[in-house]
Structures are given as C-alpha cells and as structure tokens.
Amino acid sequence: MKFTEMKSNPTAANLPAKIQRVGAIGGGQLALMMGDAARNLGIELTVQTPSAADPAVAVAAGSVLAAIDDVGATAKLAELCDVITFENEFVDLDGLAQLADRGALFRPSLLSLTPLLDKYVQRCYLQDLGLPTPRFWAWDSGDPLPEEATNFPLVIKTRRHGYDGQGTFIVKDAASFESICAKLKGRPLLLEEFVPFDRELAAIAARSIDGEIAIYPIVETQQEDRVCRLVIAPADISLNVKAQAESIARTLLDSLQAVGIFGIELFLTADNRLLVNEIAPRTHNSGHFSIDACKTSQFEQHLRAVCQLPLGNCGLNCHGAVMVNLLGYESAESDYLMQRQQLAQIAGAFVHWYGKKQSRPGRKLGHVTVVLDSESAADRRAQALSVARNIDFIWKAN
Ligand code: ADP
C-alpha cells in the first residue's frame, strides 16, 4: 500500500468543516468524473484504487493505492476523509462493518449495500418489496434445473463481482448449457428466466439524507454483447411507463434508506410492464449523459447527497441526448487521438476520454454525448441511432 500527499484545495473553505473531504472506494472512470464535479464544488476527493495508472488518480486530491476490498487501506482512507462513498461495490462488507463500528462514515450506508451485492440476495430483496423481477432461482451448476426452468433460453449469472456482462450468460441450447456449467462449476450462481424485452430502460435517482428524492429523465439503454453501447435520454415511453419507473425508483431508494445516486436497470416488456434487472448503489453508465445534457450531473448530485448539500435540479438543459460508449475493439496501447478529434467535430458532441493506457475488446475507454435538437421524441430516437452509427464508424476507423 502506498499513500500520496494530499494537494490543497483553496475553494474547500465554503463547505461545512466536516464534509469537505470525500473518499471514494474505486478509482476508475466513475471516480474520474466525480473528481471533476468535486473540484467544482470545492470538495477534496481521495480515491482507493489498485494502480497509480487508474483514471481517477490524476484528478484526485490524493490516493491510497490498494485493492478495492483491502480493508486496511479503507481504514487509512477513513483517516484522510470525512465520509467514504463507493464507485465500485466489490467491497468486503464485513471488514468495512468493523471500520463503521470504529466511527468511519459510509454514504450510502453499509446497510443500504447489504441486500445489493449478491445478485440472488438482491432479487429476493426486490421480491420481498413486491417489485417485479424476472423469475429466478438460486442454483448450483451441478444441480438439476428447477422444473419451471427447463426451456431454453435461460440466463445464468454469477452472484457476485459481475460487471459489463462478465458473469452473465444467456444460454440458448443444451450444448452451450453444458459448457457454461463446466466453466462455472463451484461458483455460487443465479438462474433466471430469459426476458424477451421490448427495450431496456434505466432510472438514475438520488436520495438525500433527509429523504428527498430526485429522479433523472428515464433513459433507454442498448447493450451489445451484454455491454452498454448507447443511452438515449429521455426514453420515448408512455407517461404510464415513466410513472412505473419512477415509482420503482422511489420505493427502492426509500426502502434502502439510500444516500447518493443509485442506478436501476429495467426491462420493458411488449405489454408495457417493467421488471427490475439490477440495482447499482453508485453512479451509473446510463447517467453519463447528465454531465452535458442536465442541469446537474449525476456526479455532482452524488457528492451533493453524500456531503449533505441540497440536491440539484436533474432536468435536461436541452431537448434530449444520446450517449455512446467508446468500447475497446482491439488489444493495443493507443490514445486514439485522431478518432477523438474527429468525434469532437460532430455537431453538439462532447467527447470524454478516461485516459486508460491499455485498450482491450469491450473495455470502456471513453464516451461521447451528443445533444439532440428535435422536439419530437420519435425523431430524436431516429437521430440518436443515426448519430451512434456515425460515432461507431469514426471510432473504429483506423
Ligand atoms: P452486469 O451486472 O454484468 O451488467 P446484467 O445482469 O445487467 O449484467 O446483464 C447484462 C445484460 O444482459 C442486460 O443489460 C441484458 O441485456 C442482458 N440480460 C441480463 N439478464 C437478462 C434476462 N433475464 N433476460 C434477458 N436478457 C438479460
């Protein structure tokens, strides 16, 4: 473990003394973007992250270089900060509980995180709350399939540490079922029905310590190979679906006594029902559009909630926007400067680059948000898809 010196922050004096220093467990792109928001709010952000090359280290006031689940490192982070938050939920909750007992302040609280870190436990929590989810079973790859789940396709998920589709397997037939079972042998698994959704949506919502809730415009998300490729804000959905999504977000955040931003991934069925796919207790990829297209970004909103500042307005500052992830498509060391310069020429485009040194297929290297000017939701969706095709074309042109 290695500690770097804290850099001073001259604007921090305006905040109440106790909440000027925020620690983030994780130092990837979410912490990087939180770092920009922290600077604007005059907050000192210190990150706990394994490598000095991780995206947020360059913008943070300080860093504790250690693994995400290194509780000793989080103890050091707690000494440097007034409050600790999460950009990554792959933490050792039992270890952190000992720090909380000794006075470390976590926002969201460890209690809010407890039902969310294991996908099976999360599904049970949603079910107990009466919220709609895909049908699911706890299951071991050596066990026979439950009677109600004998038809393909089926979905198998590892219960912990899944991200960007790693750990999620859509099993189409008996042959792939066998090979996936062999690969996952011995790991705790969640089995669930395959939902032939019409579209995927996401609700990004913030809750303050006083219980105030602010919900961003509900967005449509599109995944490719189970990784988010693009997000359209706002989603072209009926008022009824919007109300359902917002009601799910309120129920969940209140029940969790959440503090900060939470991302809620949803499936929209052909008959206009919503099912909750997953809850992330942190800022979320489907909220990145808010940096350029909303009055308050999700990163600023998260810090506001965590630091007990009033929540900001999460309304759009334009008619709509599309966010396209710049996903690695090769193993290479490149800063893709030429492509980024070309992307910046697109009208209404904001290019965000995470500064990762190494590209790998599927790795999130940056994103582009393009604000959309059409007043009609259907036109905007068509415009969004066409902009996304153009971005992909430029991005992958060598
Ligand atoms: P991760 O936690 O790695 O992001 P998810 O559980 O969110 O994994 O799944 C990634 C993607 O896989 C989803 O966005 C969706 O496209 C697809 N998926 C996941 N579960 C199901 C399901 N039960 N039915 C249909 N598609 C699913």
Please provide a written account of the structure:
It is a single chain. By secondary structure, the protein is an alpha+beta fold. The protein is built from eleven helices and 18 strands. It has helices at residues 29-41, 71-80, 93-101, 110-113, 119-128, 174-184, 239-256, 290-293, 298-306, 337-343, 377-396; strands spanning 2-3, 21-25, 44-49, 62-65, 83-86, 136-139, 154-158, 168-171, 189-193, 199-207, 213-215, 219-224, 227-233, 260-268, 274-280, 320-327, 349-353, 364-372. The protein is globular and about 55 Å long. Adenosine-5'-diphosphate binds at residues 134, 155, 157, 162-168, 192, 194-195, 200, 223, 226, 265, 277-278.
CATH superfamily of the largest domain: ATP-grasp fold, B domain
CATH topology category name of the largest domain:
D-amino Acid Aminotransferase, Chain A, domain 1
Low-pLDDT residue intervals, each spanning 5 or more residues: 1-16
Query: Kindly, what is the distance between the CA atoms of the first and last residues, rounded to a whole number of angstroms?
Result: 39 Å
Q: Summarize the helix and strand pattern as letters.
A: EEHEEHEHHHEEEHEEEEEHEEHHEHEEH
CATH classification class of the largest domain:
Alpha Beta
Number of strands: 18
Structural class: alpha+beta
Mean pLDDT: 94
CATH architecture of the largest domain: 2-Layer Sandwich
What shape does the CA trace take? Answer: globular
Task: Tell me what portion of residues adopts beta-strand conformation.
Answer: 25-35%
Q: Compute the gyration radius: what is it?
A: 21 Å
Bound molecules: adenosine-5'-diphosphate
